[in-house]
Amino acid sequence: MAHYWTERLAMLFDMMRDPAFLVVTAMIVAGCSGLPGIFLRQAALGQLLATAGALCSSLLALPALISMLTAGESASFILDWNLPLGPCVISLDPLSLFFLIPIFLVFPAGSLYACGYWPAASRRGSVRSVTFFYGLLAAAMALVVVSRNGALFMIAWEIMALSGYFLLVAEHQDPEVRSAGTVYLIASHIGAAALLLLFSLLKGATGSLLFPAAGSLQVTAAGATLLFCAGLVGFGSKAGLMPLHVWLPSAHANAPSHVSALLSGVMLKMGIYGILRLLSFFPEHPLWWGALLVAAGLGSALAGICIASAQKDIKRLLAYSSIENLGIITAGIGIALIGQATANPRLAYLGMAGALFHVLNHGLFKPLLFFAAGSVMHATGTRDLDRMGGLAARMPWSTALSLCGAVAICGLPPFNGFASEMLLYLGFFGEALAPEPYLALGAPLLALTGGVALICFVKLFGIAFLGASRSEQAAHAHEAPATMLVPMVLVAGVSLLAGLFPQLFLALVDPVVQAAVPVSLGFPGLPIPPVWFTVSGGCLIALAAALFWFLRRRQSALPAGSGPTWGCGYLRPAASMQYTGSSFGDLFGALLSPLIRVRIRMREIAGMFPVVSRLSYAPEEALLCRVILPAGNVVGIAFSYLRRLQHGEVQIYILYIFVTLILLMLWVH
Amino acid sequence: MIDTFFHMALVLAMPPLLLGVIGKTKAAFAGRVGAPFLQPYYDLSRLMRKGVVLSDTTTWLFRAGPTVTLAATLFAALLVPLGKHPAPISFEGDMILFAYLFALGRFFTTVAALDTGSAFEGMGAAREVTFSCLAEPTLFFALITLTRLSGTMSLTPMLNHVTLPVWVAAGASLILMLAGLFVVLLAENSRIPFDDPNTHLELTMIHEVMVLDHSGPYFGCILYGAALKLYLLGALFVNIAVPFTGGNRFFDWGIFALSMLALAVAIGVVESVMARLRLIRVPQLLVAALILTAFSLVLVVR
Predict the structure, then answer these.
(1) Residue A207: partners with Cβ closer than 8 Å, 6 or more residues away
(2) Across the interface, do A565 and B56 touch by the CB < 8 Å criterion?
(3) Has the ipTM of the complex gone over 0.90?
């Protein structure tokens, strides 16, 4: 008997040495991490266990993922299921491995953050469900990435979408949250409908729900176009590509911040993964696919960041900036496709490497900024930028970390955003030498996007943290607890590391690039020696530190004084006289009236002696308010007739199912 | 080696002189004697010896603003070739780093301005980021045109490529590009017609209003950094505008220094004969400059 058990144990250790097995174990651990919390009486203990589970899953998965990616290994498993949907295959190839990395980076950071941000003590009602669905969402995303069967993919996709919904409506007492949840659910299912169409078309083409092997799908040109369009609608709406983004800002703004971090940092990337997976089926891609992706991506990036610049809700601003970043990633994929179609290895490599590197980078700095936004909300109780200010003195850590995030997301050196945008710029500039340099026009567009991003994040950082407090709550803000700061420090550290040593991260990107665009094999790799990133970033930091120190010395050697800010002669300056976020963005916003305008609601002043009045203002997106909401109202009226079918009488519902089944059987025979 | 020495010496020592020359030119137009050429140096040395007054509202970011901005500008100074000599640091894509270093400087300058909590400085910061954002694509169009002309993607070979034969072949395009770049030079350095560095009416200013609360050595850093930025963007302009080489290294350095002074005179003339634009006109002029450089690209492609 003892012999039997030692044999079993030895077998287990053997399996533990297999990185693929570790990854699958980590997925299961992640999915079950919130389970004990549901049954445990003490919610705090459940949350602690969930966090430990999340950290464990990440410790198991990350080394395994990195070793498999760099060694170029892949693995697949066939699960035994009794469903008539074909074999249930899950597989870890470079593309899947790569997209698992952000999941296992952001999920444990968010879980740790939740201990301080969504503590069991004060969130008694929702902590169990939030913790459970947080783990389930991470596991579902991992399952989306590894599944190779259309049915399994759709199941995982739906679990992901629904756990996202339940996380999003954690504060469902608030009607705004409920309506954001409903919009999310509808948009998510319109996308899922497009995906169902995609997979049924695929099944029609290949005869099986299994994903075809890379480059093996043989369909007519029209069939390929149909597949591509269905995939673009389904995956593009998940990735928040304009104009399919309408659900995104309100969803990401109303979810708890650690959920927003996971939704924005990782779940949006599932759309990108889907597009890349779909593209991998086709042996060749028409040139217009690439062109369409570049146009959609750059358009979405520019429009997204322009709308972000007018926002006054800190999380809504971040959500629109996600649309921008996902647009940049899509544009990179488009560039790579054009490179592949025109047999241009340089373009293919730089586009795809830039896009994938940006996937990683956005998965770092966007969660950092959402965590920072969470800390600010935790401290001030509001999302409104115009009610913040002066937090830097009371929240020194959060301030420094948000500064890192803001610099990184603007794509400024020495952080990681610069490194990935640099690759895309090099791709665009290389096209300037081509006979028809249309693609080179992307560089000024990307530069404009970067310029507007600077407006957004100077506004976000400067208005929220600096100056004088604009409200009572902001004046009494407090620093976030260590459980919230530690994940932020970690993410910020990795961001800086990726900016200074991009070659470490490009080593993870390269195998995926070669698999996704084989043409790029002809390109020797990064055209700039990566040491320049280290040198420029290092010099910059050293130079700035030396100057700071020198001026500090100089300052202490000289007579010093202090006083109020110079008010240009005005004697009673007040905090309410400061520039607010809205006024900061107004100068640029004035140029954007077709995209977004500020709606001001005020009571008319009446009578000779006006009494106290109210005024409120909010930016409104033109597309949403002028086109989509009116269209939605019309659809709502049309569907109100259908609601007669839904009357709550269960026996009639069962009749519906029976009739449908009979009809289907008639149709099949 | 000796070129690197000259490069560092010019970049570190010459920028304030440009401000002196601009001031003298404007004085000459106004019929005044004007401050001596070396006045900006006196100002800097005085500021380095002056005490610091800090607003109670500010934090360490207020002091980080001038330092990070100057550090970024100093590193950018290593990337631009002066005259027809190679820059100390040159690699593929360095022009993107060049543009983004200025963006980093702008980020920290505007953040430091917002740190004071003053409405005026917030206003200046909003104007600075908005106008610079519109000026950015112009610079990139010019860089693309230069890439196309020279076949390289680094500032040194790109700018050294512009010689007399290139001017003969693509003169029209280069003139359009120079016009666009001159507008960017004036806008990025807050000169008339975009901004008036001399005005004392805070409501109308952009750059000056952002630095109202800085004093002492910190203000010295800002003045020096601004002069350096003018010098670097000016060098970019001069490298394209003056395609001659004398063959002798020292002669070439002389030509470059003289051209920079001539550029300062030109800026002084523009400042003397023009009035500041109304703020709502500024984006229009910037977009016009953008379209000029876009045309220069079209002319090169045809």
Answers:
(1) none
(2) yes
(3) yes
